[in-house]
Design a protein that fits this description.
Number of helices: 15
Organism: Halopseudomonas oceani
Number of strands: 0
Distance between the termini: 26 Å
Structural class: mainly alpha
Pfam family, one: Alpha-E
Helix content: over 70%
Protein name: DUF403 domain-containing protein
Radius of gyration: 20 Å
Order of helices and strands: HHHHHHHHHHHHHHH
Number of domains: 2
InterPro entries: ATP-dep_Glu-Cys_Ligase-2 (IPR051680), DUF403 (IPR007296)
Amino acid sequence: MLSRVAENVYWMARYLERAEDTARLLSVNSHLLLDLPRATKLGWSEIIAITGNDELFDEFYPTRDEASVLSFMCGDRRYPGSILSSLAAARENLRTTRDVIPREIWEEVNQLYLSVKEQVGSGITPRRRDAFLGRVIRSCQTVNGLIEGTLSYTPVRSFLIVGRQLERADMTTRIIDVRSANLLPRSAEDLKPFETLQWMSVLKSLTGYQMYRQHVRLRIRGPDVLSFLLQDQLFPRSVACCMDRLAEALQGLPRHELALKEVETCRQDLSKPDVTLLAAEPDQLHAFVDEIQIDFDDLHAAISQTYFAQQELNQSQSQSAS
């Protein structure tokens, strides 16, 4: 399999997952703010913090109000992680690999991109926002269903799974990191009256509320939610489960030793701490999530070095020859 094709498939899956996760996050945040009193500190600024693109946002928007954040996250081409930018990138990566991907997958991604582009161009009003975000989520899920039901078990499928699971785990840790700063009490007296509602929104942003109630069978508490989203091996969007599925996909690829070593490092780091203790110390939780994020960067670098480096080498040689 050509390294160019492998890299394009990998990034197509990452961008598609990014678009879906962004739509989920915006949808849940919209509904959460309707349930909270206006005096609460939680708002739209945290959404920008989750992306890690505070400087880019502040460069183009004077305030972090609802309209500005939605514009930035949904349709701003200057932000590569917006829904429109992510779908455009997924579509372009898929367009160059159409010979190895079933046509139905291309048609669904292409139609979703064109629909989102049209809606962004005409403006996403508050009345149309839920329908817009719901369409993005459902179409991305449709693509994943088409992948599951129509794509053969070849290296193409493996690279799709690797990209999807790494992006999904990354988003889970980002949501935990930013939300925990607002939700975890620094003292017993600092418990907020709407804490349960906010932790519920964290679960819902990852479509984990019902599975949490089935697996944990306890009232919603910060430590239990953190343990579920970080270490549960049965919930598909938990970090531990993402790493398990990613490792399985890597084992179907040649020369997987370096990447699997990085996956194992991440697994060990995930299992080391007592999340209940971390939940009592927000600063320690933040440091722990930073460590996991570094593990993800190292894992991506190992995948890139093993499978995509030849393409970069060829491009460098081509440029030197010209």
